[in-house]
């Protein structure tokens, strides 16, 4: 990779950025940086946008990739919902839609939903005269990103070794990239929140439970492609059967599916709860209803969330003892965005209870505030491929 390409790559990873920061990163004279950046501007690859905070003297201009350089169709598919967006090359969202898919039980149903969603995004792109360069998919379950095969998807049991990349490229004639949703989100976290972390964990708590590892400043990816399945760490050997076939997995006692099912179980057996005043039928029960009731001191919901947080804290403490991270980033639908977070309080309490003293004292736990992290993660691979395989080749030609 030549010097200009290295500068462009660093702008992508760290934008918006100043010329002085580029100079310091690469040990280059500011005059050389000026020449290189001006070339990228002349070619329409980067643009100026705004000014950095002044430290005295003139404010430095900020540089980022030109938003018109390329546009991408990205989908994030969890067991609960299908989020879809059009993004520019900076992963800034242009359009977003979301649809709940818990009712889908068969492979063909989910495939048709994915096809329709991409078609809808293409129409939106056409309305705004956007040229879609690539499609990016982050999907729950086991994924081989090299081959583009979605090996398994939670709770859709006939979803086995689905060649999603080739299916989408055949149907839409657009290059497509597939990744596991936790790996994808961890890439987004490393880009924007964990840039200085040498060792960090990203933990996602929702319909599934997973963890991504940042090691030596890079997102760790197993040579076998499959990693981060925190939800299938055994935390209760005599616990309920998980959909994976094992008993007592963290996901079987602490995912949002598990918590809603637990509350339903006790309500059906006569337990008292203010939830019964808020819903017409148990079919309406969801994790947000449980969280609101717990915040109102409903004993049943408080106990269910507190117990789940204890199991999650135990699981995370095992990762802390194993890797010794500087920072843990927590995200997902189980984290309450309003009011007291009963589950998170229990997670913290049990992390400190079960991790080694020296490790439990030295890490920082941060709740991810950016709700778009999963979609930005889905955009990571297609943007990277477009930059390396298209834009970089144009630089070589010039």
Pick out its properties.
398 residues; alpha/beta; Arc Repressor Mutant, subunit A; Nucleotidyltransferase, domain 5; 3 domains; 5-stranded mixed sheet; 13 helices; 15 strands; globular
Written account of the structure:
This protein is an alpha/beta fold and 398 residues long. Helix content is 43%, strand content 22%. The protein has 13 helices and 15 strands. The chain has helices at 3-14, 19-26, 30-42, 107-127, 164-172, 181-192, 250-254, 256-268, 287-295, 299-323, 342-354, 357-362, 373-397; strands at 46-51, 61-65, 71-77, 81-88, 93-100, 132-139, 142-144, 149-153, 156-162, 176-180, 199-205, 209-215, 218-219, 327-331, 364-367. β4 (81-88) and β5 form a beta hairpin. α6 crosses α13 (373-397), α9 crosses α10 and α10 (299-323) runs parallel beside α11. The chain is globular. 40% of the residues are buried. The mean pLDDT is 92.
Question: What is this entry, summarized?
Answer:
The protein is an alpha/beta fold. It has helices at residues 3-14, 19-26, 30-42, 107-127, 164-172, 181-192, 250-254, 256-268, 287-295, 299-323, 342-354, 357-362, 373-397, and strands spanning 46-51, 61-65, 71-77, 81-88, 93-100, 132-139, 142-144, 149-153, 156-162, 176-180, 199-205, 209-215, 218-219, 327-331, 364-367. It has 13 helices and 15 strands.
């Amino acid at each position: 990779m030549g010097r200009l390409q290295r500068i462009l790559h660093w702008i992508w990873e760290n934008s918006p950025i100043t010329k002085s920061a580029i100079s310091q990163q690469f040990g280059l004279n500011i005059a050389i940086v000026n020449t290189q950046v001006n070339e990228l501007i002349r070619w329409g690859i980067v643009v100026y946008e705004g000014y950095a905070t002044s430290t005295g003297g003139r404010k430095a201009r900020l540089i980022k990739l030109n938003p018109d350089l390329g546009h991408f169709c990205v989908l994030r598919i969890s067991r609960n919902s299908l989020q879809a967006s059009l993004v520019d090359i900076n992963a800034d969202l242009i359009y977003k839609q979301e649809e709940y898919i818990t009712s889908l039980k068969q492979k063909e149903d989910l495939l048709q939903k994915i096809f329709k969603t991409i078609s809808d995004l293409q129409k939106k792109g056409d309305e705004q005269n956007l040229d879609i360069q690539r499609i990016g998919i982050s999907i729950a379950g086991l994924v081989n990103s090299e081959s583009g095969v979605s090996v398994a998807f939670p709770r859709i049991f006939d979803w086995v070794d689905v060649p999603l990349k080739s299916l989408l490229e055949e149907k839409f004639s657009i290059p497509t990239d597939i990744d596991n949703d936790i790996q994808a989100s961890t890439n987004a976290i490393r880009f924007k929140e964990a840039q200085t972390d040498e060792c960090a964990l990203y933990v996602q708590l929702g319909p599934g439970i997973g963890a991504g590892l940042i090691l030596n400043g890079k997102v760790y990816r197993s040579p076998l492609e499959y990693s981060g399945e925190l939800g299938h760490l055994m935390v209760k050997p005599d616990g309920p059967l998980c959909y994976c076939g094992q008993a007592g997995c963290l996901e079987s006692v602490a995912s949002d599916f598990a918590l809603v099912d637990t509350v339903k179980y006790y309500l059906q057996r006569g337990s008292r709860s203010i939830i019964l005043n808020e819903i017409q039928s148990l079919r309406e029960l969801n994790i947000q209803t449980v969280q609101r009731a717990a915040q109102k001191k409903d004993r049943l919901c408080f106990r269910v969330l507190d117990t789940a947080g204890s199991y999650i804290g135990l699981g995370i403490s095992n990762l802390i003892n194993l890797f010794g991270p500087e920072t843990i980033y927590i995200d997902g639908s189980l984290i309450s965005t309003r009011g007291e977070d009963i589950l998170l309080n229990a997670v913290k309490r049990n992390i400190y209870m079960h991790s080694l003293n020296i490790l439990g004292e030295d890490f920082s736990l941060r709740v991810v505030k950016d709700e778009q992290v999963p979609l930005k993660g889905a955009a990571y691979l297609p943007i990277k491929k477009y930059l390396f395989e298209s834009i970089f080749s144009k630089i070589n030609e010039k």
